[in-house]
Design a protein that fits this description.
homodimer, alpha+beta, Aminopeptidase, Alpha-Beta Plaits, 2 domains, 6-stranded mixed beta sheet, 4-stranded antiparallel beta sheet, 14 helices, 18 strands, 21% strand
C-alpha cells in the first residue's frame, strides 16, 4: 500500500485505531441499519426520529457540539467540532433516511435485519446513505479518541428527507449560510467507477425538462373521414421533436452549443484510461450498438456533452389492435442534459424560438417548463480535490480516477452557490449496490477503506493553507 | 317537384300508396325500433333474434321468399322476389342490429321507446340502420300491394352483426355468390351531404394500418446517467414518423403516389359546387386553420387524396410531472388512407424499404401490419348511378350530389369484388343523427322521402336493359 506521508503525526495512530476497531464500527453501522427510517412513509415517522436521535447521541459521545434541528418534516442533525485557526473548514453532508424497502418478498434477508454475506452487509440504507455517511462519523471518532482533537473544523449536516426531495433543506441552507460556511463540502453518496477503481466525481450535468402539449381539433375525429383534411397533432409532434434534434443527435435549438465548455485534453486522456469496454456496456444494455454525437466516446457523451431525450410520449389510441382515430391531442415530455456554462433559461428561450414558428395552422402549442438546473464542475486543479485524491490513496491503496456523472444532484449546486465551496463527491459504493431496490448492500471492505480515507482526508485538508 | 316521367305506369300509384301509408310505415318502424337488438351484448341475444324474426314475418307478408340463415353468431335474413326476365337484379344490403345505447343517462327519451320530437324519431337504430334499411322494405311493400309484382328482381340481405364487425357475413358472401348474384347493390347506411342536399356516395378510400414498435435498451434507464450514450427509441420514433411524411403532408414512402388516380375535372367541378364553407368547417372543429396537401381543397383531400395519420403514440412516462426516464420502448399506430388503384401490400413493402435502412444501431424495429383495404370508386357514368339519381330526384324533389367518403366500408369492397356489381350508397341520414351516440335520431321526412326514392329506384333500375 503506497501512502503519501501524513502531515499530522497522529494520522498513523488514527488509521491504526480504525483498523483495530473494524468490528466495532461494523456493529455501530448494524445498529443504525436496524432502525427503519423510511422518510416517505408516515408509518415510520417515529423510526425516522429514532435514527436522528441515535446520531445525536453518537455524535455527542464523539465530543461534537450537536443540534437536532426541527423542520416541518423530519429533523436535520447538525454537529460541529471547534474551529482550528489557519486550517480550512469542511462540511460533511449526508442523510440518515432511507428508501422504502418494497417489494419485501424479493429480499433474501429482511431489509432491517442487517446480514453479512460474501463480505457485504445487506440492509436498506447500507450504502445509501447510512453506511457511506457513517464513514465520516467513524473517522471523526477515531481522531477524537486518538488525538483528542481534529486537525481542522468539521461540520456535519445530516438530513432525514433526502429520499423525499430534501424539501426543507434548501431553506435551512438559505437561513444558515454563516453557520454552514466552509471551504469544501464532502459528500459520500455516489459510487466508485468500478470495483477496485475508487473515483472522485468532479462534475455533474444539468437539466432542462419540458412538457409539450399540442392540441388540434376539439375532439378525437375519425381518421378516415377527416384524414388529410385537418392538422394531426400527433403527426405534428413527431415533426417538432425531430426538429429539436437531427438524426445525428445534434440539437437544433438556436444557440444551444454557444456556451458549451469543451472537454479538456486532460479529461479526455483521464477517461480514455478508464476500464470501460464499449462491447461490455452494449451487451449489458442488450443493444447491438449505440448512436450519439460524432467525435465523442460514450463516456464523454454521457458525462460532458449535452443530450436530448424524449422521456415520454402520449397520443390517441394505445390499446390493443387498431383504432382509426385522428387524435385531438398529443404530448411529449423531454429533457436536455446540460453541461457547465449552459443556462437552462436560455435553452427555454431558444426552444420557444424554434418551436413557435413551426406550429402549423390548426395546432395550439403549450410548452410547460419543469425543473431546470445548471451543470457543474469543480476544477481538477482544486487543492481540495488533490487532498481527497491523496486521502483515497491512503484509504483504498489506489489513486482514484477523476470522473463526471451524467445526472444532476441539485443539492451539489445549492452548496456550491450558497456556500461558494468546492464539493467533493467521494463515493464509496459500487454500481451494483441495489440502491432503491431489494437487497441493497455495501461492501464491508469499502466501509472500512472509506473510514480510513476519511480519516486521511482530515489530515490532508488541514494541510491546505486557509484562503 | 320535378320528377322524371315513370317508366312503369304503376309508379304513380305506388308513390301515392307510399304517401297514403305514411303513418302506418312510421308505426312499423317504431315497432322494429322497440326491439333492443344490441348485437355486441349477449344479454340482448334473444332480442336480436326477435328483430330477425320480425323481419322474416314482415317480408313474408309482402310476398317475398324469406330465409332465416343461421350463423355462429346472429342470423342473417335473406329474401328475394321472383326473377324478371330482361330486367337487372338489385341486392339490398342492410342490418337490423344496433349499437349499445350507453351512456343511458344522456338520452332525453329512452333508447328503445321511439319518441317523435321536431319531426325526428329518436331511438337507437332509428337511422343506423333500421330506419334506412326499412325504406327499401316499405317500397317493396308498396309495389307488391299496388302492382302485385316488382318490376325487377330484388334480393334483400339483412344481417345482425354489422355493429360487431360483420364477422360471419364474409363467409356467407363467399359461399353464396350465385344466390346473391346481381347487377347492383343498394345500401342505405350513410348520410346526405347536408340537410336538403341528398347525395350518392360513389367512392371510398382504402386503408393500410400499422403498428411500429421500437425497442432500445433492455430496461428503462436514467436519462441523466445514460442520456447521449444510448439510442433513445422515442427520439427514433419521432425521426421515423417524420421520415414517413414531410411537413407539407407529402408521403415519403417510395412509390407511394405511383398508382394514385387523379381526381377528374368533372369531380372537382361537382365538389366545388357543394355547400361547403371552409370557415364553418374549421370553426366547427375548433381550429384556426388546417394544413394539407398543396393544390387540393379540403373535400378533395378527405375524399380523393391519400393521407397519413398517426393514430396513437406511447412511450416512457406519461403521468403527472417530470420523470427522467430514457424509455426502453416506443410505439406508434398509424395509417395511410388510400385512394383507388393503390395497393395496401405495395404500401407495406415501400414502408419497410423506407424504415429499415433508417433503423439506427441500438434499436430493434418491429412493424406490425393491421388491416388493409383498397379504395374504391364506381363510375359516375354507370347507368345504375344515373337511375339512382333519377330516383332520388323523384323521392326528395332534388337531384342528388355525387360525393365520395374518406373512410372505408369493407363490405362495399366485398360486394364489388365477389359479385362484380356496382354499389349504390344512397344515404338518407344526416351528419348530426348521433349514430353510435345518445339521442340517435332519423328525420321522418327523410324516412318518407327515402321510401319514395326507393320505390322510384325499382322503376328506374327496371328500365336498364339487362347486360
Amino acid at each position: 500500500m503506497t501512502t503519501a506521508a501524513p502531515v499530522n503525526p497522529a494520522l498513523g495512530q488514527v488509521l491504526q485505531f480504525v483498523d483495530e476497531h473494524r468490528q466495532q464500527f461494523q456493529d455501530d453501522l448494524a445498529e443504525l441499519l436496524r432502525i427503519p427510517s423510511v422518510s416517505a412513509d408516515s408509518a415510520f415517522r417515529d423510526d425516522v426520529r429514532r435514527a436522528a436521535d441515535w446520531l445525536v447521541e453518537h455524535l455527542t459521545q464523539i465530543g461534537l457540539a450537536v443540534e437536532l434541528v426541527e423542520t416541518v418534516g423530519h429533523p436535520i442533525v447538525y454537529a460541529e467540532s471547534p474551529p482550528v485557526a489557519g486550517a480550512p473548514v469542511a462540511l460533511v453532508y449526508g442523510h440518515y433516511d432511507v428508501q422504502p424497502p418494497d417489494p419485501l418478498d424479493q429480499w433474501i434477508s429482511p431489509p432491517f435485519e442487517p446480514t453479512v454475506r460474501d463480505g457485504n452487509v445487506y440492509a436498506r440504507g447500507a450504502c445509501d446513505d447510512k453506511g457511506q455517511m457513517l464513514t465520516h462519523v467513524k473517522s471523526l471518532q477515531a481522531w477524537s479518541r486518538v488525538a483528542g482533537e481534529l486537525p481542522l473544523q468539521v461540520k456535519l449536516l445530516i438530513e432525514g428527507e433526502e429520499e423525499v426531495g430534501s424539501e426543507h433543506l434548501e431553506s435551512f441552507l438559505a437561513e444558515n449560510t454563516d453557520k454552514l460556511s466552509c471551504d469544501c463540502v464532502v459528500i459520500s453518496d455516489t459510487s466508485q467507477f468500478a470495483p477496485g477503481v475508487p473515483a472522485i466525481t468532479y462534475g455533474l450535468r444539468g437539466i432542462a425538462y419540458y412538457e409539450l402539449h399540442l392540441t388540434g381539433p376539439n375532439r378525437d375525429l375519425h381518421s378516415g373521414v377527416f384524414g388529410g383534411g385537418v392538422t394531426n397533432p400527433a403527426n405534428t409532434l413527431a415533426y417538432m421533436l425531430h426538429a429539436i434534434v437531427d438524426d445525428q443527435g445534434w440539437i437544433q435549438v438556436p444557440g444551444f452549443y454557444d456556451d458549451v465548455l469543451p472537454i479538456s485534453e486532460r479529461e479526455r486522456e483521464e477517461w480514455r484510461r478508464l476500464p470501460f469496454e464499449q462491447k461490455t456496456y452494449e451487451s449489458e444494455l442488450g443493444v447491438n450498438g449505440v448512436t450519439g454525437e460524432a467525435g465523442f466516446s460514450t463516456l464523454e457523451r454521457r458525462w460532458a456533452r449535452p443530450s436530448f431525450d424524449v422521456n415520454g410520449l402520449g397520443s390517441g389510441y394505445q390499446g390493443e389492435g387498431a383504432k382509426t382515430v385522428l387524435p385531438a391531442k398529443a404530448s411529449a415530455k423531454f429533457s436536455f442534459r446540460l453541461v457547465p456554462n449552459q443556462n437552462p433559461h436560455k435553452i427555454t428561450a431558444g426552444l420557444k424560438a424554434l418551436l413557435e414558428p413551426l406550429t402549423p395552422p390548426g395546432i395550439r402549442l403549450e410548452l410547460v417548463e419543469h425543473h431546470g438546473g445548471a451543470g457543474i464542475t469543480f476544477p481538477l486543479e482544486s487543492p481540495y480535490l488533490e487532498a481527497a485524491a491523496d486521502a483515497i490513496e491512503a484509504g483504498f491503496g489506489k489513486r482514484p480516477v477523476f470522473m463526471r456523472e451524467g445526472g444532476s444532484i441539485p443539492i451539489v449546486n445549492s452548496f456550491s452557490e450558497r456556500l461558494g465551496a468546492d464539493v467533493l463527491l467521494l463515493g464509496w459504493g459500487q454500481n451494483d449496490d441495489n440502491l432503491h431496490s431489494p437487497n441493497e448492500k455495501f461492501s464491508l471492505a469499502d466501509y472500512h477503506r472509506g473510514i480510513r480515507a476519511s480519516a486521511a482526508l482530515w489530515d490532508r485538508l488541514a494541510a491546505i493553507k486557509k484562503r
